[in-house]
Amino acid sequence: MSPSPRRMPLIDAFKAIASQLIVLHHLSSYGPLSESARELAPQLLDWMYDYARVAVQVFLVIGGFLAAKGLAPQGESVVQQPLALIWKRYRRLVLPYLAALGVGITCAALVRLWLWDGWVPSAPTLPQLAAHALLLHSVLDQEALSAGVWYVAIDFQLFALMVLTLWLSGKAGALAGQVRRLTPVLVGVLAVASLFHFNRNEVWDEWAIYFFGSYAMGALAYWAADDDRSPLWLGVLAAIVIGALVIDFRLRIAVALAVALALGVGRRTGALEAWLDVRPLAYLGKISYSVFLFHFPVVMVMNAVIPHLVPRNPTASAIGLVLAWGVSVAAGAFFFRLVESRVR
């Protein structure tokens, strides 16, 4: 969810739409508001629950695309100090994440006074807090303190894996005299391993390699869209991913492929800087990480407060969900201005 120094409206729009879908997914998944509103619009709520979460693939692909742009813009690794880059990424992700987590823990404590339900996080323990700060909560089987925090850990793992892969490819390529060829090849090999093996087994879903196929699609689409490369390379990428889908169809991988191809074609044609250049989408894309981090405390509070203020019926609950959606976006914008923009 990191920003790029050069504005690309298509990426902003994808991030904006994906972040809103994730908010809608969580609104449909937790609390009495969604349970009551489902009587009014069961198909819509079920769709939000079942499919809106696939939008996380958009962020995975964009992450790989921007990583390639920043770390190997010509397909040749420019990584010289991998640990410094990984540490910088950790700070960029974790400082706003910890601030949002602190607010979420406070909100959960207040909500438990009115609403006791399994989806409201319990009071944290010291091991939980330490695991979350180190982005190891999933690996160490610690209960999540907020919805979606698994993604922050995976994003960090993916970036670290990409940095180390590019650094090694640069070292090995320098010895072999084939730096530009070796970098995409190594990333491609890891992507194939992920798509054809690791991503098909959920036992790996706490580790970067499970998601690396989607992340690498973004990077490979960036490199394949170079002006001096044949456009057929995007076709090769599509063919490999389609082969993985023929063996085991996964909607998340199909969505990742569609996003990767859109970014690749957009870069090759110049449309990356022109498509969907709409100011509200650009703004929502800019604040997408803050919305992602900060919306769950809002979801908890709204689910605790609204049913105590108005009669519990499907119409009132549906209005409450829409209100919670709007407040989530507004709170995310405030959090961006107060915290994330200063971290940047």
From TrEMBL:
Sorted UniProt keywords? Membrane, Transmembrane, Transmembrane helix
Q: Which InterPro entries does this one have?
A: Acyl_transf_3_dom (IPR002656), O2_lipid_transport_reg (IPR052728)
Residue runs in coiled coils: none
Q: Which GO terms describe its molecular function?
A: acyltransferase activity, transferring groups other than amino-acyl groups
List residues of the Acyltransferase domain. 11-330
**Pfam families noted in UniProt:** Acyl_transf_3
Transmembrane ranges? 51-72, 93-115, 148-170, 182-201, 207-225, 232-247, 253-275, 287-306, 318-339
Question: PANTHER family in the record, alphabetically?
Answer: O-ACYLTRANSFERASE, O-ACYLTRANSFERASE LIKE PROTEIN
Put simply, this protein is called: Acyltransferase 3 domain-containing protein
Per the UniProt record, the source organism is Oryzomicrobium terrae
